[in-house]
Automatic annotation (TrEMBL):
<comment type="similarity">
    <text>Belongs to the synembryn family.</text>
</comment>
<dbReference type="GO" id="GO:0005737">
    <property type="term" value="C:cytoplasm"/>
</dbReference>
<dbReference type="Pfam" id="PF10165">
    <property type="entry name" value="Ric8"/>
</dbReference>
<keyword id="KW-0344">Guanine-nucleotide releasing factor</keyword>
<dbReference type="GO" id="GO:0001965">
    <property type="term" value="F:G-protein alpha-subunit binding"/>
</dbReference>
<keyword id="KW-0143">Chaperone</keyword>
<dbReference type="GO" id="GO:0005085">
    <property type="term" value="F:guanyl-nucleotide exchange factor activity"/>
</dbReference>
<protein>
    <submittedName>
        <fullName>Guanine nucleotide exchange factor synembryn-domain-containing protein</fullName>
    </submittedName>
</protein>
<dbReference type="InterPro" id="IPR019318">
    <property type="entry name" value="Gua_nucleotide_exch_fac_Ric8"/>
</dbReference>
<dbReference type="GO" id="GO:0007186">
    <property type="term" value="P:G protein-coupled receptor signaling pathway"/>
</dbReference>
Amino acid sequence: MRLSNAFLNLTSRSGGNDATELPESIRIIGGCAFDENPDRSPATRHLALRCLNNFLHLSQPVRQAFVDGGFPKADSLPEMTDEEKEREAERLFVLFERLRATGVVNVENPVAQAMRTGGHVEELSDDDADN
């Protein structure tokens, strides 16, 4: 990374440069200024990687997030109250109705489909849901 690019990226960082980030940013820019060729030694390659990691924020691919543990585990999620469960069910119902009304995506509410086909919807207790 060239020094001019490092300064430009430093000024346009979205994270904000507070007093705790400034010394690290100065060290990185100084390293870029003194040795712009990362192939000279392992230390400068490491410095070039730090420049890349701190100034170019690459987003993680969606498919890679689960492998890397990017999603919270079910154990760490707080238990939903009955009111929260009901609100979530209402949101899902509205979502299915909006998708059906647009005609772009052919989806149907699973509960409405079960009622129309004569099937039944079995409500499970919390103990049965784990099995």
